[in-house]
Amino acid sequence: MLDYDDEARHYDASRGGEPRARAAADAVERLLPQGPCTVLDLACGTGIVTERFRRPEWTVLGVDRSPGMLGLAARRVPGGIVRGDGARLPFASNAVDAVVIVWLLHLLPDPLPVLTEAARVLRPGGVLITTVDKNDAYFAEDSDIAEVTADLRRHYAPQVPDRSARLLRWAAEQGLGAAGRTRFPGTGQGRSPRGWREAIEAGRISWCTHAPRDQVSDVCRRLAALPDQDAPRPDPQYRLIALKS
To answer: Which residues form a coiled coil (predicted)?
Structure first.
């Protein structure tokens, strides 16, 4: 996993900056409860999304384990940022009306402890909102990159932690019901063939870490043969689901 203390200074700029943060916050708001509520942004990072939830009628809290990230988040959400581990949240049970988890679950070897903690701090009738299927977000059906990577993704992407089917099974076991879903664009986040190959070779693509090395090498070779090596393909369409307690 990345050293997020080291990444903090340039994290926002390298992840779509203000346009992506605005799109993410707008999408989350479509799934949040109406009226006054307490919103907890779990793994809030730099707070670039968290600050957009601030409303007179809402109490907004952010929690993250990286001091570097929290230093930036505290400037954006004064008095609302807490250091803590997502698997051991520093909040009482039944404390918040909504938990928001954006771009975290795909990084975790096992997301269930974090999801269980999120469910614990939710009040009855509260909503858990999380990104899912992050790796699928990058692949438009007519993309040449989608075609090159299709077999590898079909066999190995189901093993990644943030698959929506897995989360929905967990939710049903916990008594949480599906309460909505939406998408938002990752503006400026579309990768080029060269960008994909470099990300795969650097071990940053989770479903590739489950695949045999020879198959990964073959995909990288095919990516290198695509035209327009430095031309970004379509922006990803990130997915959010809401689960109600």
So the answer is: none
Question: Is the alpha carbon torsion for 224, 228, 229, 231 positive or negative?
Answer: negative
* Domain containing residue 101: CATH number: 3.40.50.150
Confirm whether 32 is domain-assigned: yes
DSSP E strand stretches across the chain: 37-42, 58-64, 81-83, 96-101, 122-132, 177-185, 237-244
- Looking from the CA of 58 toward its CB, the CA atoms found within 13 Å total 22
Report the number of distinct structural domains present in the chain. 1
* pLDDT (tens digit per residue) in 103-131: 899 889 899 999 999 999 999 999 999 99
Domain that holds residue 64: 4-134+161-189+235-244
Cα–Cα distance, 135 to 152 (Å, whole number): 12
Residue 181: inside a domain: yes
Q: Is residue 141 part of a domain?
A: no
Cβ contact 118:128 at 8 Å: yes
Q: Which residues pair with 41 in a beta bridge?
A: 62, 100
- The residues near 26 (Cβ < 8 Å, ≥ 6 apart) are 52, 184
Q: What is the pTM of this model?
A: 0.86
Q: What is the pLDDT of residues 75-102, one digit of tens each?
A: 999 999 999 999 999 999 999 999 999 9
Q: Which of 42, 241, 93, 34 is nearest to 50 (CA)?
A: 42
Q: Is 53:42 a contact under the CB 8 Å cutoff?
A: no
- Specify if 140 maps to a domain: no
From the centroid of its chain, how far is CA 213?
26
